[in-house]
Specification:
Distance between the termini: 49 Å
CATH topology of the largest domain: Aminopeptidase
CATH class of the largest domain: Alpha Beta
Largest sheet: 15 strands, mixed
Strand content: 25-35%
CATH superfamily of the largest domain: Zn peptidases
Number of domains: 2
CATH architecture of the largest domain: 3-Layer(aba) Sandwich
Number of helices: 6
Oligomer: single chain
Helix content: 10-25%
Number of strands: 19
Length: 336
């Protein structure tokens, strides 16, 4: 066993070969005084080469990545790897086990918590260990997200923090093309100071790709197959994966789309029932009706009309009709 902070790893990350086990996070509760939380982990290491960390279950109600990485753990063998591939299929284990975006233990959102705190709450301890132990010396982090239970992406997307540096690098752009999902969305964000897994990767000197794969609390076979093919093809192009698992081609050619963090989002301004006025994948114009919020509890009150602030393609929408003030209803992107 190897240790780091209060978490104890059942595997040795420095050892060659294929290892599977758990990151043991001590968790003393009424039901189990000397218990621990079992965070699944696998490491496949074979000599020198890039170090890659693959994550899913960062948000527990996002299932697509968990399925993809669970299959990958079963299929990976040392002779297929050049360097090291570390896999965390349920990164925020308490949230993933409960099927919730945030942890039921401390309400922690792991993807807003990096770099964490080794002496903090459960989610903070997980974030600290992933960033400072698992990601140490990392070359690439791929964090597989989806829309979760509240949002639905109609296509498979890759997210990149604009201004991070690698996003403007031709080699990194080629890596996104090797992944080959439908959209590569460039979003302004804090590359090295934010609380995201991508920020953690940048702080450790690596690059990062985050995906959005469907959502709505479901697993869509088409998007799952695209992401599985794209991930393996990209790992092959990166030099981390060889052999029969590497597909001959990417699933497609991505369209590179910038996302404005303000004008490309539509939010509910009052609680009520949201009726969308567009479909996913539609091209909309600035000022076009985005939908209406209905106030069923106030007889005779007219619905509130919402409008898109900018033109773009509707890449994501809210899944539940019931909404509260501040809920995201639409997410757009615009071809550069």
């Amino acid at each position: 066993m190897t240790t780091g902070r209060s978490i104890i790893a059942e595997i040795d990350f420095s050892q060659d070969g294929k290892q599977m086990g758990y990151l043991r996070l001590p968790h003393s509760v009424h039901r189990s005084a000397y218990g621990w939380l079992p965070i699944p982990v696998a490491s496949v290491k074979n000599g020198s080469g890039p170090k890659v960390v693959l994550m899913a279950g960062n948000h527990g109600d996002e299932y697509e990545g968990q399925v993809i990485l669970s299959r990958l753990i079963a299929d990976l063998e040392p002779e297929m790897v050049g360097g090291q591939v570390i896999v965390l299929p349920m990164s925020n284990f308490p949230a993933a086990r409960a099927g919730r975006r945030t942890s039921p233990i401390d309400e922690g959102n792991l993807n807003r918590t990096f770099p964490g705190d080794p002496n903090g709450t459960v989610t903070q301890i997980i974030a600290d260990y992933i960033e400072n132990v698992v990601m140490e010396g990392v070359d690439l982090v791929v964090d597989l997200h989806s829309g979760g239970s509240s949002l639905l992406y109609h296509e498979a997307c890759m997210l990149v923090s604009a201004g991070a540096g690698p996003a403007d690098d031709p080699d990194f752009k080629s890596l996104l093309s090797a992944f080959g999902l439908t959209y590569a969305l460039y979003i302004d964000g804090a590359a090295t100071t934010g609380g995201f897994s991508s920020s953690a990767a940048c702080r450790q000197g690596g690059s990062a790709i985050t995906t959005e794969l469907g959502g709505g609390g479901t697993v869509q076979p088409r998007l799952l197959a695209m992401a599985d093919q794209g991930l393996k093809h990209m790992l092959g192009a990166f030099g981390a994966l060889t052999g029969p698992l590497v597909p001959d081609a990417a699933p497609g050619a991505p369209t590179f789309q910038p996302v404005d963090p303000h004008s490309h989002y539509v939010y509910a301004n009052e609680p009520g029932i949201f009726e969308p006025a567009a479909e996913l994948g539609d091209r909309v114009a600035a000022g076009q009706t985005a939908g209406w919020i209905h106030f069923v509890d106030t007889p005779g009150r007219a619905p509130a009309e919402l409008r898109f602030a900018a033109a773009g393609i509707t890449v994501c929408k809210r899944q539940p009709a019931m909404c509260q003030r501040g809920d995201c209803l639409w997410h757009l992107a615009e071809k550069s």
